[in-house]
Automatic annotation (TrEMBL):
<keyword id="KW-0472">Membrane</keyword>
<dbReference type="InterPro" id="IPR008930">
    <property type="entry name" value="Terpenoid_cyclase/PrenylTrfase"/>
</dbReference>
<keyword id="KW-0677">Repeat</keyword>
<dbReference type="Pfam" id="PF00432">
    <property type="entry name" value="Prenyltrans"/>
</dbReference>
<dbReference type="InterPro" id="IPR006311">
    <property type="entry name" value="TAT_signal"/>
</dbReference>
<dbReference type="InterPro" id="IPR001330">
    <property type="entry name" value="Prenyltrans"/>
</dbReference>
<feature type="compositionally biased region" description="Basic and acidic residues">
    <location>
        <begin position="251"/>
        <end position="261"/>
    </location>
</feature>
<keyword id="KW-0812">Transmembrane</keyword>
<feature type="domain" description="Prenyltransferase alpha-alpha toroid">
    <location>
        <begin position="62"/>
        <end position="172"/>
    </location>
</feature>
<keyword id="KW-1133">Transmembrane helix</keyword>
<keyword id="KW-0732">Signal</keyword>
<feature type="region of interest" description="Disordered">
    <location>
        <begin position="245"/>
        <end position="267"/>
    </location>
</feature>
<feature type="transmembrane region" description="Helical">
    <location>
        <begin position="400"/>
        <end position="420"/>
    </location>
</feature>
<protein>
    <submittedName>
        <fullName>Prenyltransferase/squalene oxidase repeat-containing protein</fullName>
    </submittedName>
</protein>
<feature type="signal peptide">
    <location>
        <begin position="1"/>
        <end position="32"/>
    </location>
</feature>
Length: 428
């Protein structure tokens, strides 16, 4: 779901355990002293101009996904760069400066970057082996509770579990059938543990917490979980035929909790939607975030997440209100934060059936395209489905044609979790 120059981390890992803090712009502590991490020259095919060491794969994946939703066939060099970041074991890290150098034990493999790459490469097609290896790696690092952390071995969190659910679903897996080796727990079992029920304060009920430790309502985690609980990823199709399901907050009348989310992921998503709508209504149709000790500010990225989450739950009327706020207020934020920010807004527009080429006076598609290599084909030049045509070498658009022999390099990026905004902050 789940975006710094391409959404620098919603959370940064602390030490190797990657205990996350919601936010952006800061390097994970364990890797902040890596002198070789920042490339002197950005590689060909990469979207964005800012340092990719913490979000390269993430922002590339979102950019390519967003282009795909509007019928654009990305440049072959952009797709090659993304697929070429994979390690031999199937995992992805944020950025590998030397893909020809094999990943080693120090390479900070990241479930979020891996899951984002899976969703993009599935959408583009032609990368079956790459996707299969990535999915196998994700399954291999599933925690006993059924969930995932951004960094293998750390405690599960709602955001990482949600983005992996989206990847599994995109790859044709049934998330409910992906169970932990010990205990046989599913991703949904893990996700529901982060839900705050009737034991919570009234204004927190239905929300999700980021992690169980120091549990507190978290809008970012709630938007991610409300999407993931429905088995959906970054790309959400708009509700058809004018369908609109009223948002119903979690009810705590006698016996109602079991009916509204106690063990049902879809009902938990409904409760999460209720929490998001309450927060949006309270704040003027946007969500808030704040640096510790600072005044809360509008959170554009998380507001876009909420739009997608509401659309995923078939709540287009509820999604329309924060969408209008985004149309009026998101352009400057996206310009500052680059390709993943533009991509996130494109995906929010797509989820609501809104034209991203006329988004509050901004052509999000043109702006996104301008942050990377020129697309191989636009919808106007492509076939009826917007994706037809061949690259100059005769391969299918977005793919490689021939098997890409991936050299595995020393990864110098670090896990950054569910990157859906551009500020380091604590979610209110």
């Amino acid at each position: 779901m789940t975006h710094s120059a391409a959404f620098l981390a919603r959370r940064a890992a602390t030490a190797l355990a990657a205990v996350a803090v919601l936010g952006a712009a800061a390097a994970p502590a364990a890797y902040a002293d890596s002198a070789s991490a920042s490339p002197k020259k950005l590689p060909a095919g990469l979207y964005g101009t800012k340092d990719p060491q913490y979000d390269g794969v993430w922002r590339q994946s979102l950019a390519l996904l967003a282009q795909d939703t509007v019928g654009i066939r990305p440049a072959a060099s952009a797709v090659r760069w993304l697929a070429g970041q994979q390690c031999a074991d199937g995992s992805f890290t944020a950025f590998r400066a030397e893909p020809g150098t094999p990943c080693d034990a120090k390479t900070p493999r990241d479930t979020n970057q891996t899951a984002a790459a899976v969703q993009a490469l599935v959408a583009l097609g032609g990368h079956r082996d790459t996707v299969k290896k990535a999915v196998s790696w994700l399954k291999s690092v599933q925690n006993d509770d059924g969930g995932w952390s951004s960094m293998a071995g750390a405690a599960s969190d709602a955001n990482s579990t949600s983005v992996v659910i989206g990847a599994l679903a995109a790859a044709g897996e049934k998330p409910r059938s992906v169970t932990s080796k010990k205990g046989g727990k599913t991703p949904y079992d893990a996700l529901l543990t982060f839900r705050l029920g009737c034991e919570a304060k009234e204004d927190a009920r239905g929300a999700f917490t980021f992690q169980l430790k120091a549990a507190a309502p978290n809008a970012d985690a709630t938007a991610a979980a409300a999407t993931g609980a429905l088995g959906k990823g970054f790309v959400v199709e708009p509700a058809g035929n004018g369908a609109d399901t009223p948002v119903k907050p979690l009810s705590c009348k006698d016996g109602d909790e079991k009916k509204t989310g106690g063990s049902d992921p879809a009902a938990a998503a409904q409760g999460g939607a209720g929490y998001l709508v309450a927060q949006l209504d309270k704040n003027g149709q946007h969500l808030l975030s704040a640096m510790p000790g600072a005044k809360a500010q509008p959170d554009v990225g998380n507001t876009a997440d909420a739009v997608v989450a509401l659309a995923a739950g078939a709540h287009p009327a509820a999604a329309a209100k924060p969408l209008k706020w985004l149309e009026k207020n998101a352009a400057a934020w996206a310009k500052q934060n680059g390709p993943a920010a533009y991509a996130q807004l494109v995906l929010a527009a797509h989820a609501t059936g809104t034209d991203p080429r006329s988004f509050g006076g901004t052509d999000l598609v043109a702006a996104l395209n301008a942050t990377g290599p020129e697309p191989a084909a636009t919808a106007a030049k492509a076939g009826k489905d917007g994706k037809a045509g061949k690259d100059a070498d005769g391969s299918e658009g977005g793919g490689f044609g021939l098997v890409w022999i991936i050299g595995i390099g020393l990864a110098i990026g670090a896990g950054i979790g569910f990157l859906l905004s551009s500020r380091k902050k604590t979610q209110l």
